[in-house]
TrEMBL record:
This is Amidinotransferase. It comes from Dictyostelium purpureum (Slime mold). Pfam families: DDAH_eukar (PF19420). The lineage of its organism: Eukaryota, Amoebozoa, Evosea, Eumycetozoa, Dictyostelia. One of its GO terms (cellular component) is cytoskeleton.
Length: 316
């Protein structure tokens, strides 16, 4: 069975009531208070729409949800990759062999509202019921234990390694339980940002594409873990090692997507594209034959504290 690292089908959710999430700002050091007089909701939708259209122009299939007028205020709904993930039967060949939908326990109460019934029904209906298994971790919210999807995890889907930096939003015990259910090997470590604070989500410091892995090795807290992660990654990928300053420009919050022809694109924000060195860009281009898809999303990055990778939920 062939496993794919990236997908040609993705799901995106248009921002609803986009604004600074007061519940999340305490542990997301990438979030900033918005400037005076800015129309943050309108700017968020504009940046989102331009990026979504840019991805569609490369013939990547985008399933777009626009949760307008449902009365649910979800300032972070633009980041759907945190509350669910999907996994193909091929990926699950050593763990039941069924297409799999995973639902995750979210740290902050208003982020739990992002699990809208219509999106869940769409995800369930992608496969016949007898070919789908649902793995639901949401009950752990009652115990104060959290694991926020492919924000917490950066997955090597081909080699079945799940990388995670442990934080308030990424519980190690849950991560191990997830790996046991999903047939993955857990690669756990602690990561610190440029202010020496714990990194809340792994996908701000690393990303795994088909041939390359972007990672800030310097952010990993101990030398032992740093060497362990580097050794594991380098067995299967060319490493693009980024600095903590580049992490602050969202160079780690990137993703590879495919189109129907199998062309692979490196999706990153304008700030991260500018922050990559020329040598790093060359390495990326040599390993992603479709090149870059990049747009400027300053409001989403600054106010939302997340980047383009967070805006994309892969459908397998």
């Amino acid at each position: 069975m062939t496993r794919n690292q990236s997908s040609n089908n993705i799901l995106m959710v248009e921002p609803t009531h986009f604004e600074s999430n007061v519940q999340a700002i305490a542990d997301n050091t990438f979030m900033n208070k918005p400037g005076e007089g800015l129309d943050i909701p309108t700017l968020g939708v504009k940046e989102f729409t331009e990026y979504c259209n840019a991805i569609k122009e490369k013939n990547v299939n985008v399933k777009l949800f626009q949760p307008k007028g449902d009365g649910i205020e979800t300032p972070d709904c633009v980041f759907p990759n945190n509350w669910f993930s999907t996994h193909s039967a091929e990926e699950m060949s050593n763990a039941g062999g069924k297409n799999t939908l995973v639902l995750y326990p979210m740290c902050h109460p208003n982020r739990r509202l992002e699990r809208r019934a219509n999106i869940i029904e769409f995800l369930k209906n992608r496969y016949p019921a007898d070919q789908l298994q649902i793995v639901d971790f949401t009950h752990y919210e009652e115990k104060g234990m959290f694991l926020e999807g492919t924000g917490s995890f950066v997955l090597d889907r081909v080699n079945k390694n799940a990388y995670i930096c442990i934080s308030q939003r990424s519980h190690k015990q849950l991560a191990q339980e997830w790996c046991d259910k999903m047939g993955y090997n857990l690669v756990a470590f602690e990561s610190l940002d440029s202010n020496n604070k714990i990194v809340y989500h792994t996908n701000v410091i690393m990303a795994i594409c088909t041939k390359i892995a972007v990672i800030c090795l310097d952010s990993i807290a101990t030398q032992e873990d740093r060497e362990m992660v580097e050794k594991t990654l380098s067995k299967t990928h060319t490493i693009v090692n980024i600095t903590k300053d580049q992490v602050n420009q969202f160079c780690g919050n990137v993703i590879e997507v495919q189109n129907g022809n199998g062309d692979k694109f490196f999706v990153c924000s304008e700030s991260s594209f500018k922050a990559f060195t020329e040598q790093q860009k060359e390495t990326i281009k040599n390993n992603c034959n479709g090149g870059f898809i990049t747009r400027d999303i300053p409001t989403i990055q600054s106010v939302g504290g997340g980047g383009i990778r967070c805006m994309i939920a892969e459908l397998f």
